[in-house]
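A favour between colleagues. Tell me how you read the following sequence-structure pair.

===
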Amino acid sequence: MTDLRKDIQPCVGVMIFKDGKVLLGKRLGKHAPGEYSFPGGRVDYMESLTGAVQRETEEESGIKIKNIKFQCVANIDRYSYRHDLLVCFTADYDSGEVRTKIDERIGDWNWYELDNLPKPIFLPTGILIDSHKTGKNFYDKE
């Protein structure tokens, strides 16, 4: 059973570009298993937002990124057991080989064309995709 938290969790997500494609992995954990997601996760105490993006990307996918840019912020409370404040970024691939770690919550990483993405897409990832396509940079509770 998932613990019900009453506080907002600061999270980051990042859309990474390489040769005109974006990196997506299939979620493996309890939260939205089977949905496709960009790298991301919780911001650690006293960690910078860009530091969290770099750390989560390297931990989950094994690659390094560069040219990190703010994309949007979203207030997500659509899941009954959590409330996230999501800060989204875009970045470019820098180095490393994509790999799946057994103990990570996302795996089966692959590069996809933005107009030919696998389904289903994880809600926060969908918000970042919409922001990139529309230029909208703020998503509040709806």
Notes: Residues 49-61 form the longest helix (13 residues).
